[in-house]
Amino acid sequence: MTLHHPTHRTPEVAVVYGTRPEAIKMAPVVHALQAQGAVRPRVIVTGQHRHMLDPVNQLFGIAPEHDLDLFQPGASLDQIVAGALSGVGRIMREHDVRAVLVQGDTSTAFAGALAGYHAKVPVVHVEAGLRTGNLYSPFPEEGNRRLVSAITALHCAPTSVAAAQLHGEGIAPESVVTTGNTVIDALIEAAGRARPTGDAVVDAAMESGRPIVVATAHRRESWDGGIGAIGSALGQVARSRPDVLVVVPVHLNPRVRELLLPPLAGLDNVRILEPLSYGPFAHLLSRARVVVTDSGGIQEEAPALDVPVLVTRDTTERPEAIATGAAELVGTDPRRIVDSLDRLLRDEVHHQSMATAGSPFGDGKASIRVAAAVANLLGLGGRLPEFTGDVEAAVQMRAEPSVARADADVRTGA
Please, which domain of life does this record's source organism belong to (predicted)? Predict the structure, then answer.
């Protein structure tokens, strides 16, 4: 689908995001669009994550033209979507925007895409085609990305697996481009800069080479027991391995804190940190022995840094790292988390097999491919050759969905 608009000035495209992960993944896209020059990005942030969003914009030198400042403690999903839809829609009516770019699966992404659809401008979905097959896991992300796909004109799939998923859903092949994941572009820029966390114990451990386990948890579907189980498992490992430092950059959500932190209280080798800005976090991640997480972004980032990942979810929409061996899907059963984490800490051969599995998610040039595809959509240039990461095993795994799920008998509450 190529759209032609006669104009004598550089056409504008809206780049919409509102959370920290979106900001990280969209910053390289903004830079690539600016460098390319075929279109001008007009950055609209919703402020869905207020305190976690601004430091990322500052790190990457992004100055949004519009800030909806929607953040309210305890805001419902309905309130977030309604506010973002209204605000983005108003801005698009006030400016001659030729396309709208959204990223991933947040409520901001859904609202931004819907605003573009209402304005009858093409929607570009960055990180398109991820699926778990379960509409409520993760929630609301799985529903958001399916809804965005239904109204998208250009699907920028991060891997061939994601592209194949879109083709299987009946999306026209010419509207899908495999770009790689833009988070790898951001990570390459940020991880190479040594930035301290500000915690003396953690910074000393990074300098000395002490084994570090980085752990994060925040998923809504795990609020009903799963996050507490993750905390319990981390506490068990910390007590049995005093030589290991467990570092937990804890989410700002009070519900997450009340579930995750009690099992970790009073342990000298556990450090609870406030959310880190992206630069220090990328540096910390690069020094970790292993990461335990339910974060989608970290599942993509850690393999690029040769850090094994234990995914504390029952399903993942990023099966490529599971297939290549860079990550293991462990669910939220404390026994399985403890066993898998203990093995990675003591078994060097097993650790190396995961650490050297490689990253199937990108080569650092995804944003350039996205920018070229956007220009092509608007009739302003050609596409670049697509990303061809080695994900053959993951492609086969799509025919075996059970491989991308934690074993049923280890699911908390099953």
Answer: Bacteria
Q: Which of 210, 218, 350, 411 is catalytic?
A: 218
Confirm whether pTM is higher than 0.85: no
Radius of gyration of the chain (CA): 21
User: Distance between CA atoms of 362 and 77, rounded to whole angstroms?
Assistant: 31
Q: Are residues 268 and 403 in the same domain?
A: yes
Look up 251 and say whether it is catalytic: yes
Q: 127, 300, 314, 328: which one is catalytic?
A: 127
Structural domain count, the chain: 2
Task: Encode pLDDT of 196-247 as tens digits.
Answer: 999 999 999 999 999 999 999 987 776 777 899 999 999 999 999 999 999 9
- Is residue 185 a part of any domain in this protein? no
In Å, what is the CA distance from 73 to each residue of 47, 222, 255, 257?
12, 20, 12, 15
- CATH classification at residue 268: 3.40.50.2000
* Segment 180-200, tens digit of pLDDT: 999 999 998 887 777 899 999
Q: Is 118 a catalytic residue?
A: no
**Given 42, 50, 67, 105, the catalytic residue:** 105
**Catalytic option among 50, 66, 98, 141:** 141
Q: Are residues 134 and 96 in the same domain?
A: yes
Which residue among the candidates 20, 42, 251, 398 is catalytic per the annotation? 251
CA-closest candidate to residue 80, choices 46, 116, 122? 46
Active site residue 220: yes
Task: Write down the mean pLDDT value for the chain.
Answer: 90
Domain assignment of residue 104, given as a range: 12-180+365-383
